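hiii so um. not sure if this is the right channel but i have a protein structure encoded as tokens and i wanna go backwards to a sequence. like what aa goes where. can anyone help
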């Protein structure tokens, strides 16, 4: 975990360029990958749920060049060159939130989104979920996160319906998929472990 105030994201860091089939094509800087039009690169999104069923969402820092101040999932970023998806997801949840927990992959998808002619996302994104206690200490990174909170699933569904413009485009796609296509997979991933039988 990085101490608060230490940058964890840099325009010059190397991201992984891939084909739609996730074949490695090379690397480029984060800045280049996110120019208007975008280059397809690996990414991940993490959704952390409390044991009571709430989901942790955050408002992106106003310092972000793309979608600043928009609400999004618990954590999202990119694997760096030489790093697997899940290694990157664990690293980033520690850096952004100060949290470590087991993560389960739910699905992978490709999307492209553009932000006001400034830049774009074109990502092959794996979606992970994890479960933590709602009283877990969260340590948001100030350069990444403006604010955060736990929300009931019903609250998020209503919020998305009434004010979708407040959310990042990838969150809207991912949340809809988790609540429809992958609902049973999500439920199974978040099922608490069976207690060990007494010996």
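sure thing!! here u go:
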């Amino acid at each position: 975990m990085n101490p608060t105030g230490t940058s964890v994201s840099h325009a010059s860091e190397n991201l992984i360029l891939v084909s739609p089939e996730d074949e490695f094509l090379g690397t480029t800087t984060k800045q280049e990958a996110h120019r208007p039009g975008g280059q397809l690169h690996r990414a991940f999104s993490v959704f952390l749920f409390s044991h009571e069923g709430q989901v942790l969402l955050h408002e992106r820092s106003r310092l972000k060049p793309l979608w600043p101040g928009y609400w999004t999932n618990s954590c999202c970023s990119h694997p760096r060159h030489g790093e697997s998806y899940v290694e990157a997801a664990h690293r980033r949840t520690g850096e952004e939130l100060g949290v470590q927990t087991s993560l389960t992959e739910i699905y992978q998808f490709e999307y492209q989104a553009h932000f006001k002619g400034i830049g774009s996302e074109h990502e092959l994104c794996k979606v992970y979920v994890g479960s933590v206690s709602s009283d877990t200490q969260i340590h948001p990174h100030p350069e990444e996160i403006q604010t955060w909170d736990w929300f009931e699933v019903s609250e998020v569904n209503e919020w998305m319906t009434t004010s979708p413009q407040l959310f990042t485009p990838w969150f809207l796609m991912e949340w809809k998929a988790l609540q429809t296509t992958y609902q049973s997979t999500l439920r199974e991933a978040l099922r608490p472990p069976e207690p060990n039988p007494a010996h």
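oh and The longest helix spans residues 85-97.
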